[in-house]
Write a structure and sequence with these properties.
single chain; alpha/beta; Arc Repressor Mutant, subunit A; D-Maltodextrin-Binding Protein, domain 2; 3 domains; 11-stranded mixed sheet; 13 strands
């Protein structure tokens, strides 16, 4: 005979109620089923677990020791079942989100707050990486969802646009462009342009090359392994100019001026999108996607609608 949870439940119930009849009623069983199960367990173990009398049952020394272990095992099993159910409903587990810059968390704050309230059992992990790394990790299932600039055109990937930000040019206060209302892309070919290797730097570098390439110009670029805000400090001391998105800086700093960068149609915007695998298997993502769609208007409020 194999000893199972059924036998352990019989032992715990019999000890708790002190009567096979009351224990059987509590478990919605016949008393004969309860009695036979305990006797089978006793025969299998070769010990007497209960002293039986007309007044009921009480555990023997062996029964008391078995009872302690049985209660612990049943408690662990109930916790295991509960945890598995929560994982299946997406109410527990882990959610890995990838972001292109740390400031993107600010835009997602309403979604993250509501998600934390609805799914307190889910551990949210954030990672900041350039776009190629985000898409690579998404395809490799290292991320459940990634926020990227532009859109993901890969097969098997779904996406929804979130918000847009203007691309700004930062120049020293003494720069000739500082007195202008805005700058054109054609104005950026004669200065040293400081670009970060982190965050949106690679994408801004590619955009700059594309814009200047259409008019046959090429920028002088100096790359740095620092963030966008640190680059602004270099601009303030006159070491060059730099491109950044309007959400990058939160407080104005002395020493530089920021301008919109225009092309033939007006300001240049960069679009942020959320993307995930169509065949995702993490149930915790479903609730996050629902909240993301609910809060989408709040996330993009006050910014140009994307097309």
């Amino acid at each position: 005979m194999d000893v199972g949870l059924r036998h352990l439940k019989f032992v715990v119930a019999a000890s708790r109620y002190g009567s096979l009849r009351r224990a059987a009623e509590a478990l919605h069983l016949r008393q004969s089923t309860m009695s036979r199960g305990i006797r089978e367990l006793e025969e299998h173990l070769g010990v007497v677990l209960f002293v039986r009398s007309s007044g009921g049952v009480r555990p023997t020394l062996a029964g008391t020791e078995l009872l302690e272990t049985a209660e612990r095992l049943l408690g662990d099993f109930d916790a295991l079942v509960s945890r598995a159910g929560a994982l299946g409903r997406g109410a527990a587990g882990r959610l890995d989100l990838g972001l292109p810059t740390s400031h993107a968390v600010t835009r997602l704050r309403p979604v993250l707050l509501d998600y934390a309230r609805e799914c307190p059992g889910v551990d949210i992990r954030l990672a900041v990486r350039p776009k190629p790394g985000l898409l690579m990790d998404l395809k490799a299932d290292a991320l459940d969802l990634a926020v990227i600039t532009g859109r993901a055109n890969s097969e098997g990937i779904e996406s929804v646009s979130l918000w847009s930000e203007r691309i700004l040019l930062a120049v020293p206060e003494s720069h000739a462009l500082a007195a202008r209302c805005y700058a054109n892309w054609t104005d950026l070919g004669d200065d040293v342009v400081l670009i970060s290797r982190r965050g949106l730097g690679p994408e801004l570098k590619e955009l700059l090359a594309t814009k200047l390439g259409t008019i046959g110009k090429q920028a002088t670029i100096k790359e740095h392994a620092i963030g966008a805000e640190a680059l602004l400090s270099l601009v303030a001391v006159g070491l060059g100019i730099t491109l950044h998105c309007e959400g990058t800086t939160r407080m104005p700093d002395p020493g530089f001026i920021t301008l919109e960068v225009h092309d033939g149609t007006g300001p240049t915007w960069i679009i942020y999108s959320a993307c995930w695998k169509k065949d995702y298997t993490n149930p915790a993502l479903a609730t996050f996607l629902a909240l993301l769609r609910t809060h989408r208007s709040m996330v993009s409020r006050g910014l140009v609608p994307d097309t």
